[in-house]
Amino acid sequence: MNWENEIENFHNFILDNNIIGLFKEPIKLKSGRLSYWYVNWRNIASDVFLLDQLTNYVLSFIKHLGLRPKCFYGVPEGATKLGIISQYKWAKKQQNYGSGSYPLSMGRGKKKEHGDPKDKFFIGIPNGETVILEDVTTTGGSLINTIKKLKELNVNIIAAIGLTNRNELRDDGKSVKDIILEYNVHYYAMSNAIELLPKIEIHKDIAKHIEEYFKKYGTQRIQL
Predict the structure, then answer these.
(1) Over residues 4-8, mean pLDDT
(2) In the chain, is it the N or the C terminus that has fewer CB atoms within a 10 Å radius of its CB?
(3) 184: region left, alpha or beta (phi > 0 left; psi from -120 to 50 alpha)
């Protein structure tokens, strides 16, 4: 797949599988903000066929960026499966694929309190040129914590990729891309809320709430 030709297909994949949608009443996000709209990749991660399709899109995006990772690592726990399947499929396609050539790493949701200190946060530590995968980025908190843990182990992070960026500013006024760059890591989004929301049918009252939300929190305003 060529990514430039696949962007619209990826957007349709998101819309067809209800990854982005609306609430009649606002819910509180992990960030503490009240939102009338959601981005949730959980159903895709629970379906073998759809996860297979999603990882194909991820690998196409990686090639589009010109990256040559040795390891994919999914932010636990939402992107754990994504990281494992992407790594498996990527490694199998490489000419130097063989025993010991590519790691298979997984992060723990909770710190392991006993055993080897290296195993506290990981089942298989990432090594080599590593791409971090995240499902949804809002303020980047989980992604930042992951970057910190990997850098403590001197992991060479060549990129952080989010399936969908909610295009919000943090309370400090910085975007996810801005704050991640402070850790010398480049962030790339495969899709953006500001491009996806106008593609779905939204009642005018909820549309107004969303426009106000982006006026207050967005990296830019949105018109629905």
Answers:
(1) 89
(2) N
(3) left
Q: What are phi and psi of 167, to 5 degrees?
A: 55, 45
Q: Which DSSP letter does residue 218 get?
A: B
Model pLDDT for residues 50-108, shown as the tens digit of each residue: 999 999 999 999 999 999 999 999 999 889 999 999 999 999 999 999 999 999 999 87
Structure token digits, residue 40: 């949730």
Helix (H, G, I), strand (E, B) or coil at 87: helix
> In this structure, what DSSP letter does residue 217 have?
H
With contact defined as beta carbons under 8 Å apart, do 168 and 218 qualify?
Answer: yes
Q: How far apart are the first and last CA of the chain?
A: 31
- The H or E element that residue 49 is part of is helix 48-65
The residue type at 51: L
pLDDT tens column, 114-166:
666 566 778 888 999 999 999 999 999 999 999 999 999 999 999 999 999 99
Beta bridge partners of 212: none
pLDDT > 70: percent of the chain: 95
Q: Both tokens of residue 214?
A: 């982006």
Q: Which two tokens stand for residue 67?
A: 């990256």
Residues 139, 31 contacting (CB under 8 angstroms): yes
Question: Can you say whether residue 167 is alpha, beta or left, with left for phi > 0 and alpha for psi between -120 and 50 degrees?
Answer: left
Structural domains in the chain, CATH included, are 3-217 (3.40.50.2020)
